[in-house]
Write a structure and sequence with these properties.
This protein has 312 residues and is an alpha+beta fold. Among the domains are: 92 residues, 2-Layer Sandwich (TATA-Binding Protein), CATH 3.30.310.20; 118 residues, Orthogonal Bundle (Endonuclease III, domain 1), CATH 1.10.340.30. 48% of the residues lie in helices and 14% in strands. The protein contains 15 helices and seven strands. The protein has a five-stranded antiparallel beta sheet. Helix 13 crosses helix 15.
Length: 312
């Protein structure tokens, strides 16, 4: 028997300017957006919030200059705690509370970077739904293509995840750390994980499940301490930790400078004739201090949209 669903709506007012349509463009083109359902105007994602499985549905009702979003929360129980958690989740995922004006001033000081940002007015970083999702995704994505990484992640989600059914439609939920921790290594090897990545994914899932990795505690630490803590775990290097900081914890100034895509894009844009080194990326990024995470997001998105334009 399917439990009856409750649904409530609230309005969210982002800091202006903000273009939700551009966030949807980003998600449609992203190989990391595996659990979201995106159409021309709407974002849908099933999540476990305040102890309940719920479906979040978000759409824009305002303009870029005067942005307004509508959030519908659907689930068996949608009480005040669930609504508050859902609003916080949407604000965090879409970086809605940050005034983008200081970032605009940074961009204006670098004409080359300004040309990267200019095609996407009103866009701001879109985070992954949780630091755990960012950690698992970064480990899987090490040294493989984004297309293959998406295939492997989807296999993991299918293996260990659950679904929420709303109005006859099934929406996947990110597997809980304990569900991944309970898997056997062979389960992952059979789904094209390397032995090293299988061990790393299982290891961090167990560390999150038993509290050795506590994202709430990490969120209030300086980035350098977060990197030190995370890199103590097998399979987590600096690039992975910086991806978690940027895309999972929303650290505004974190930059995964060793990222090969970022190094390639910066090498091309600044006329190096080759990939920039990690040190050169960090040196160049000093001009974006305070906003290096935002800068990385725009470089990645620009490369992504170029690939879309080429039909890749």
């Amino acid at each position: 028997m399917i439990a009856p669903m409750d649904m409530h709506q609230i309005e969210i007012v982002p800091a202006a300017p903000y273009a939700f349509a551009r966030a949807l463009d980003y998600l449609r083109a992203s190989h990391t957006a595996l659990l979201e359902r995106i159409d021309a105007t709407t974002y849908r994602r099933a999540l476990r919030l305040a102890g309940q499985d719920v479906l979040l549905t978000v759409w824009a009702t305002g303009t870029t200059a005067a942005p307004r979003l509508r959030l519908a929360v659907t689930g068996a129980v949608v009480d005040a705690a669930v609504l508050a958690a859902a609003e916080a989740q949407v604000r965090r995922t879409f970086t809605l509370g940050v005034d983008p004006a200081p970032f605009g001033q940074i961009v204006a000081g670098d004409p080359i970077f300004a040309a990267v940002v200019a095609p996407y007015p009103g866009l701001r970083p879109v985070l992954l739904a949780s630091p755990f999702e960012a950690l698992i995704g970064a480990i899987i994505g090490q040294q493989i293509t984004t297309v293959f990484a998406a295939k492997v992640k989807r296999a993991l989600y299918d293996l260990a995840g659950r679904h929420l059914t709303v109005a006859g439609a099934r929406y996947p939920l990110l597997p809980e750390p304990a569900a991944i921790a309970a898997l056997d290594e062979g389960d992952l090897l059979a789904r094209q994980f390397s032995r090293q990545k299988a061990a790393a994914v299982l290891g961090v899932a167990r560390a999150v499940a038993d509290g050795r990795i506590d994202f709430a505690a990490l969120a209030v630490l300086p980035p350098a301490e977060v990197i030190t803590h995370l890199t103590q775990h097998k399979g987590v290097g600096r690039w992975t930790a910086e991806c978690v900081l940027m895309r999972g914890l929303g650290a505004q100034d974190a930059i995964p400078a060793g990222d090969i895509g970022l190094r390639a894009a910066i090498g091309r844009a600044y006329g190096l004739g080759r990939h920039a080194t990690e040190a050169e990326v960090r040196e160049r990024a000093a001009a974006w201090a305070g906003w290096r995470g935002w800068a990385t997001f725009f470089w990645w998105h620009h490369v992504q949209m170029e690939r879309v334009a080429r039909g890749r």
